[in-house]
Design brief:
The protein is of the alpha/beta class. It contains ten helices and ten strands. The protein has helices at about 30-40, 60-75, 85-90, 95-115, 135-155, 165-175, 185-190, 195-205, 230-240, 260-275; strands spanning about 5-10, 45, 80, 120-125, 155-160, 180-185, 210-215, 215, 220-225, 245-250. This is Xylose isomerase-like TIM barrel domain-containing protein.
């Protein structure tokens, strides 16, 4: 069994056609399993977003059966659910009714994710969902905590993707006493914020449960792998040192529309070169 699983963020195998860099491909999501298998990906990270969320196949018994069938047929797993829903509509800066509804949504998502064999749900607290105050942190922790017994019952791990500095993120994780919360590390977002990858690996490398492979210019946007500020040598050195065994999910910049497969094959080679260089296989 491989220690490292290379995956692709859902939607990256599909031309965006004006839908932005990241979206749920409602019309094409089934086709992506075959495309991912053809390119040698081990998994697809599924997206659960606010837009049309009740139409997401995760949200219906028929859809979940279809997902499981595609997993069996293609051999491409779904280990992680990227719950962008909670970045668009956070567990804070909203009225009590919306927060209560969010908790209901997360509990359902836990159950449904377990049904398809996923093991992790990731909550992004960045961009619109970024934590700005101590009250927001308190509200976030309380809301997520209320779902953790259910997550444990269904053998689902909760991960947090954050724009917090290393020390603040470790402190936040520590507030979930009695529950294991892991960190989703995004190499591009970290480099964009000017954070030191080596320091981050030292502070919380042992807590990382998934890695998003991305490159960004410091203070800027997503760019092709190897052309931004991300220090991939430090990243892979840190993962090696922490004996990381998990997923590397390509969430990198898109290339030319219609040439998704060519772009992704270059990115897979890029990642494999670092895996070989640092003997992280």
């Amino acid at each position: 069994m491989k220690n490292i699983s290379i995956g692709i963020m859902q939607g990256r195998l599909t031309p965006p056609k004006g839908r932005g860099i990241q979206f749920f491909p409602f019309e094409e999501w089934e086709d992506e399993f075959g495309k991912a298998a053809k390119l040698g990906f081990d998994e697809i990270e599924f997206i659960f977003d606010l837009d049309r969320y009740k139409e997401n196949p995760l949200w219906s018994a028929t859809g979940r059966r279809k997902i499981k069938k595609l997993i069996r047929k293609s051999g491409v797993k779904v280990n992680h659910i990227c719950a962008d829903f909670f970045m668009r509509r956070p567990f804070f800066r909203n009225d009590k009714k919306i927060i209560a509804d969010n908790i209901k949504v997360l509990k359902k998502l836990i159950k449904y994710s377990s049904e398809i064999g996923a093991r992790n749900i990731e909550i992004p607290i960045l961009d619109n969902g970024s934590l700005k105050t101590s009250l927001e942190r308190k509200q976030f922790v309380a809301a997520v905590k209320s779902c953790l017994s259910m997550a444990r019952k269904h053998k689902i791990n909760i991960g947090i993707e954050s724009d917090l500095k290393a020390g603040d993120l470790v402190d936040l994780i520590g507030q979930f006493e009695g529950f294991k919360i892991h960190i989703v590390y995004d190499s591009g977002n970290s480099s964009s914020l000017g954070y030191d990858c080596s320091e981050e690996m030292s502070r919380f490398g042992h807590l990382i449960g998934n890695v998003h492979i991305k490159d960004r210019v410091k203070g800027g946007s997503t760019v092709a792998l190897g052309t931004g500020s991300a220090n991939f040598n430090h990243l892979f050195e840190g993962l090696k040192e922490k004996k990381y065994k998990g997923s590397l999910i390509l969430q990198a910049a898109r290339g030319e529309d219609g040439k998704e497969e060519e772009t992704l094959l270059r990115y897979v080679d890029f990642v494999n070169n670092y895996l070989d260089k640092h003997k992280l296989v």
